[in-house]
Write a structure and sequence with these properties.
With about 325 residues, the chain is mainly α. About 70% of the residues lie in helices and about 0% in strands. It has helices at about 10-20, 25-40, 80-115, 115-130, 135-145, 150-160, 170-185, 185-195, 195-210, 215-220, 225-235, 240-260, 275-280, 290-315.
Length: about 325
């Protein structure tokens, strides 16, 4: 009687099973799905949300109701609409900036960990020099230098989307949608270009460990080139720390954008992000506390969920845990 061959379990399948056992990570993933899908989908439904920049002083500081789910602010603007549109901006900042920084950091760290010692030392000294620079000041300076170009970019994108003969209302609607993202491109570049330093060190250390393993030596003995070995064998087996770092970087970037918006260096009025809404609510927390409570709750839930999810992924992808 032939023996039944047991199928092997891949690292990702094993990690997913471990992740499902982590209740905090699963609940966090569920909350993130709800918050992100709401911020992305609801503003796209025509007529569902009130114009977030529409002012009506006759409706200022209203309590939550069926007409205004989260009430209105000091200018009569709907807080729920501003929260959804602002969440789209904050989430875009977190995701796009993190992708930029992870891409740069992974490539730089992988090359530094794989090449010879002299080139590795040179590349890491560049990282050390950038680490010594005042991060906040550099971001503000880069944003100031690049900001004049954002108006031209906004006009170009609006002209690209709208057709000839479009109504003024249609043009204003498109401008309301694209202007906040275009105005934040200098912020994407500034933060993304300087937030890759930590991930580069993590990837470098991981590559230096993995490149000494037997299967890499076997691939080299088969005649594979350095590029193929690095990107087809070493980096795929170093993906665990990269995924974990990515989930932990997104909340830190969102928090940094909120700080810049709080200082007036982020999204420009009348557009909003969660940082802008928290700043506006903090200045009027006694006259209209709901203006501060709702943005703070959404922002805190998103950051906590991302942190819990990152911790869960770290435990699930930990090689030592997989041997238990």
């Amino acid at each position: 009687m032939a023996e039944k061959i047991e199928k092997g379990i891949s690292l990702w399948s094993d990690a997913f099973q471990r992740l499902k056992k982590n209740r905090a990570a699963v609940v966090s993933l569920f909350l993130l799905a709800i918050i992100m899908s709401s911020c992305i989908i609801l503003p796209m439904i025509p007529g569902f949300l009130i114009d977030p920049n529409l002012q009506n002083l006759m409706l200022e500081n209203l309590s939550p109701s069926s007409a205004h789910y989260f009430g209105t602010d000091h200018l009569g603007r709907d807080i729920f609409s501003r929260l959804m549109f602002g969440g789209r901006i904050s989430i875009a900042v977190g995701l796009i900036t993190t992708m930029v920084s992870v891409f740069i950091g992974v490539i730089w760290g992988a090359l530094a960990g794989y090449v010879n010692r002299k080139l590795d030392a040179l590349m890491m000294r560049i990282v050390d020099i950038l680490f010594a620079m005042p991060f906040l000041i550099v971001v503000i300076l880069l944003r100031t230098v690049l900001e004049p170009k954002t108006t031209q970019l906004t006009d170009w994108v609006v002209n690209l989307i709208v057709t000839d003969g479009a109504s003024v209302e249609r043009i204003n609607t498109v401008r309301t949608a694209v202007e906040p993202l275009c105005s934040l491109i200098p912020l994407f570049i500034a933060i993304g270009m300087l937030s890759w330093l930590t991930i580069s060190r993590i990837v470098r250390a991981q590559v230096q460990t993995v490149k000494k393993l037997e299967y890499v030596e076997a691939a080299r003995s088969l005649g594979l080139g350095n590029v193929a070995i690095l990107f087809r064998h070493i980096l795929p087996n170093s993906i665990g720390p990269i995924v974990v770092y990515t989930t932990l970087t997104i909340p830190s970037v969102m928090l940094f954008e909120a700080v810049l918006s709080f200082l007036g260096m982020g999204v420009k009025p009348p557009n909003s992000s969660w940082g802008v809404l928290i700043e506006e609510g903090a200045s009027r927390m006694f006259s209209n506390p709901m203006q501060l409570v709702f943005p703070s709750v959404f922002f805190s839930l998103t950051l906590l969920s991302l942190n819990f999810l990152g911790d869960g992924l770290r435990d699930a992808l930990d090689p030592k845990s997989s041997k238990d």
